[in-house]
Amino acid sequence: MAPAPGLPAAPGTGRSGNLRRNAVWAFVGAVIVSVGWTAAVMAVPGLVSSDSSPRGLHGYHLSDDFCTTGKPSRILQTYSVSDTSAPTHHTDRHPALDSMNCSMSLKRTGGNNDSEYANLYLRADLHKAVNPAPELEANKELYRARGYQVTDITGLGEEAYFLYKDDGSDKYHSVYAELDIRDGGMTYYINYTASYTEGKGKPPSKEELRSALQSDGQDAVRAMKK
């Protein structure tokens, strides 16, 4: 077999020679691609930007106690924090991702049966290395596919939505409600879970929960800028 034009013939024959020639051409091809890509980037700087490029943090910052910073005042008009389980919170700082969360066990004011108890979890992340928008959108669609009711919310960050599902069989039900907000590289969510037995009380309605979580979410993201 004749050597490729412009390249010296590789020593040896047969399969070994073919492998060496292929390796040389692979290297040359890689160099050509690299030079071409560099030239394209220099000519069109925006070429390297994509949906995964990080977004600005818009002035949001962490706090050491998210249960205080993100205090769900509207929900706490209906519930009080359980006197047997204190709220817990945690804050993590990392060059790529800052995160803080808070967890609360709640008891409906004046309530005594199982349906008067609930759990609340809130979390905020500051994504400094990636754009969280595609993940948030995927999360919404996954919940929709699992039968959750999804409502887009306007006026909160760049995008926000509310999730709700009252699931159960016979008389026993479990309720899940969540509000998600994204603004630039900041994501926030607050979720509420409770259970009840028909005829023995019932948690707040879907609209009551949407209104409460939306109010508390708005207050929390504002507080993250102070």
Structure description:
- The protein has 226 residues and is of the alpha+beta class.
- It has 4 helices and 8 strands; from the N terminus they run H-H-E-E-E-E-H-E-E-E-E-H.
- Strands 1, 2, 3, 4, 5, 6, 7 and 8 form an 8-stranded antiparallel β-sheet that branches.
- The model is unreliable at 1-50 (pLDDT under 50).
Protein traits:
226 residues, alpha+beta, eight-stranded antiparallel beta sheet, 4 helices, globular
Task: Please outline the helices and strands.
Blueprint: H1 14-43, H2 66-69, E1 79-81, E2 88-92, E3 97-108, E4 117-127, H3 133-145, E5 149-153, E6 159-169, E7 172-183, E8 186-197, H4 206-223
- The percent range for strand residues is 25-35%
Question: Which structural class best describes the helix and strand composition?
Answer: alpha+beta
Spell out the helices and strands N to C.
HHEEEEHEEEEH
Number of strands: 8
CA radius of gyration:
27 Å
Share in helix:
25-40%
Terminal CA distance: 74 Å
Largest β-sheet summary: 8 strands, antiparallel
Arithmetic mean pLDDT: 80
Provide a brief overview of the structure:
The chain has 226 residues and is an alpha+beta fold. 29% of the residues lie in helices and 31% in strands.
